[in-house]
Amino acid sequence: MSDRIALVEDDSGGRKVASAMLSRSGMDVIAFASAEDFLRVRPDVSVVLTDLMMPGMDGLELMRQLKSSHGDDVEVVLITAYATADVAAQAMANGAFHFLTKPLDPQLLVETAKRAAERVRLRHRVARLEDRLATYESQEIVGASKAIDDLKDQLARLAQANLPVLITGASGSGKELAARALHLGSPRRDEPFVAVNCAALPAQLLESELFGHLRGAFTGAESRRKGRFLEAHGGTLFLDEIGEMPLAIQAKLLRVLERGEVTPLGADKPQQVDVRLVAATNQANLANVLRDDLYYRLAGARVDVPTLAQRRDDVPILVAHFLARHGLRAPKLGSKALETLQNYDWPGNVRELAHTCDRLAALYPGANLDTLPETLGAHDRPTQRGLIIDPQWTLDEIETKVIDWTLERFDGNRQATAQHLGIGVRTLYRRLKDDPNSDH
Hints:
The chain is an alpha/beta fold. It has helices spanning 12-24, 35-41, 59-70, 85-93, 106-135, 146-159, 175-184, 203-211, 228-231, 247-259, 292-298, 315-324, 335-343, 349-363, 395-409, 414-421, 425-434; strands at 4-8, 28-32, 47-51, 75-80, 98-101, 165-168, 193-197, 236-240, 261-262, 271-272, 276-281, 302-304, 332-333, 368-369. The chain has 4 domains: 4-131, Rossmann fold, CATH 3.40.50; 146-304, P-loop containing nucleotide triphosphate hydrolases (Rossmann fold); 309-382, Orthogonal Bundle (Helicase, Ruva Protein, domain 3), CATH 1.10.8; 395-434, Homeodomain-like (Arc Repressor Mutant, subunit A).
């Protein structure tokens, strides 16, 4: 992908000459006659070359605004015919990448722009690598059961393909971990992995989140948004709870899969994007909520993540893994305690087990636990007292009480709660929002 450069120059002749120099070097150049014109559009660029002295807003003020809003995501090169040591020092102190004087030397102009773009690329690459190093251990699929070995083998084989993948499994079973394993095992491993929960946003915000928007595309759109597809360019986009995606957005998603292009809200032309799509759901009837053409496109490569109850042999390994994160605060569990955890059904799956281990470390730091305390909450939950309905409650109050009781049963896990109640996560979010007494 070519470097995208913005050139801000009020002199039309100088603007055309500099644009031609940069274009001939293979860079994608977008030119503006003023800082105000640039800020109205706010194009997605990595480098801005701007004249220092211009009518209206000058180059220094434009640089200050860009550094304030974009930080290190953009480099600024200042150009002037009136160079002085004081002006150059002020420019560099305010964050300029370099300072060029007119008349422009074609070779120096191109080399400076390329070095500035390379600095931005390297900064992004370092940030991604640091993120991978910081999170690699937590993203590992832990287990040695046959079910997990089969899962790892399937993920390793699919990782090398560039196909969309649909991951199915109960809430808390590790669907995002499976998606990350696909990404880390693929040729895209050094590019972004971007995750979006389709159930957590209303329809319009979800559309903007995925495809981006231009400034003024809708009420409240005060600046341009890139969108998650473009953020994931070259890498992997993970769409969790895809069954909650509205039909109108499903049509746009299908267009991305078929043509490799996205159209931001308010834009006239689509933009090319190279993204591998991985979707996930905990719904058993996904074919009934997705468009047929989208469902069959996604379900061509399908991965089923086992529940923790289907891989009980992994419980001791997972317990050791989760407790090890607490270092010396981790309690030591005896055989009876481990047996209790291994025999529990874990309706919240691996996520529930991780939370249980966190609670053990918080409540019993460094202790030797031969048996689990009865007050722990997780292992004795199957005998939880049932909900008692007051005859004076209205239907809405009963519904609210049932939701609250089920949320408590699943430790506040909304996805597990929605699945247990047989409703969509988006419906659950909306119902909780409507409840003035809800603190969830």
